[in-house]
Amino acid sequence: MNMQRERQRRGLVILASILCLFLLTACNKELPALSSKFDPVKVEEKAKSVIALVNDRDGQTMREMGTEEIKQSLTDEAMKPVYDALQKAGAFKEIKDIQLAGNTDSSGQEYAVFVAKAVYEKKSFIVTITFTPDMKLSGLFFK
Fold first, then answer.
1. Residue 108 backbone class (left: φ over 0; alpha: ψ -120 to 50; beta: rest)
2. Which of 18, 34, 101, 137 could form a disulfide with 113 if both were Cys (CB 3.0 to 4.6 A apart)?
3. 30 by DSSP, 3-state: which?
4. Can you give the pTM of this predicted structure?
5. What is the spatial distance between Cα 141 and Cα 19, in angstroms, rounded to a whole number?
């Protein structure tokens, strides 16, 4: 029971961090630097592959590349609103305005944060994706 609370707390911290970074990005303020534990090229490549998986509606592969929290929470049912929005947005065109940042939660766990605009035929989304130092998917947010 205590482990479950810790996972929920960590999930909330990650979500709050993502939202804070999103707000900072929206205000064009400088983002926290990416930790030296992360290779910026690998973070960008992996994040682009996650966006491709979302576009392909491949939830199973996303779960396999994720943390335990992601494996439990990133269900096909949880992704349905995103998939529905993407269907209405039309064909995928490009990823642009890429920004990389770092974040550390209250337990000292560091994360890489990828924020970009995913452009589709009829709509664009701000995508925020986070990774642990071992490049496990730890957060995914389409706005």
1. left
2. 101
3. coil
4. 0.79
5. 9
